[in-house]
Amino acid sequence: MGSKHSKYPKLIHKINKASDDKRNNAECPQLSKQDDLYIDRMQVFHHVMRCVCNGNFEVPLNEQLKEGGVVVLDFWWMASDFQNSTFVGIEKVSIYPEHKPKNVRIVQADVLETFPFPAFSDTQWRNHLIKEFVRVLKPGGYLECIDGDMVPDHSGVIVEQLHDAIEKTLIQAGRNPSLTQNFHEVIEPQPQMSKVAQTEFFMPIGPWGGKIGELGLSIMLHMMSGLKKGIMHYMKLNEKSLEQLWADYKTEVNTHHTRWKIIRYIYQKN
Fold first, then answer.
1. pTM
2. At a CB cut-off of 8 Å and minimum separation 6, what does 17 contact?
3. Which sign does the torsion angle of CA 83, 118, 111, 91 carry?
4. Which of 19, 143, 162, 242 has its CA 20 to 30 A from that of 220?
């Protein structure tokens, strides 16, 4: 599935030009302009993550997904692999792939507000993302979340300075850059949820990691380019010095064998 721009060689070139994108919210920085190109970038990111994490998911539902009758929220990437189950994607804006499997349904909604689904219990949760996940989850169902640490492993001076500026930018914009590290503090107090597993993976950043490392570098540069105004502000850079910073970043991550730690959490509803 994908948009009309889904041509792999061209896509990598477009990812490298991400710094030219115009962001769609001046007050809160976006990591990507949400358009057809955004969909393609997310697909590349998805395929890299699937390779690094040894699959799309870890919950023990492979056979049930094949048999059918399972409803999956958000992870509609796997719809073609499990055609007998239903996959529901949530998008804030009306930018959807032109071609999608028949077992995919896309709902336009903001996940930071209330999900457009009925509750499976009488418990009323506050308007919070994790509690909304718990609310719509059936008893016995799994919640699997995956995200990366803020600062990559094996970081050099440039990487550390860069990510310090990114952290300040995100905090100023009301984002939580430490959500991954503190995820257990958010979900474990929920009395209906039990922890099943926590797994760590690593995505190489730079040519030292082969093709995956090259894609990882492109992904990181694309994400950081969405915050370049904040980076320039906190590091006191102009456009020319920012371009030099990107070049030095590429050299440093390859020299230090920098890698991005990815953490996967799995919980089950009692």
1. 0.64
2. none
3. positive
4. 143
Q: Which residues of 60-89 are buried (b: 16+ CB within 10 A; e: fewer)?
A: ebeeebeeeebebbeebbbbeebeebbbbb
Beta-strand pair 193-204/142-148 = unpaired
Long-range contacts of 232-239 (CB under 8 A, 24+ apart): 233/165, 233/169, 234/164, 234/165, 234/168, 234/169, 235/161, 235/162, 235/165
AA identity, residue 105: R
**Both structure tokens of 260:** 């991005």
pLDDT digit string (tens) for 19-69?
334 333 343 445 445 556 666 677 777 778 778 877 777 676 667 667 776
- d(Cα 229, Cα 235) in Å, to the nearest integer? 10
Closest CA to 172 of 26, 17, 22, 8: 26
What pLDDT, in 10s, does the model give residues 59-110?
A: 766 676 677 766 666 544 555 555 555 555 555 555 455 556 566 655 555 5
* Average pLDDT estimate for 142-167: 87
Burial of 26: CB neighbours in 10 Å, binned 0-12, 13-18, 19+ = exposed
d(CA 105, CA 34): 19
Q: Which two tokens stand for residue 79?
A: 């719809």
Q: Which tokens belong to 189?
A: 């107090």
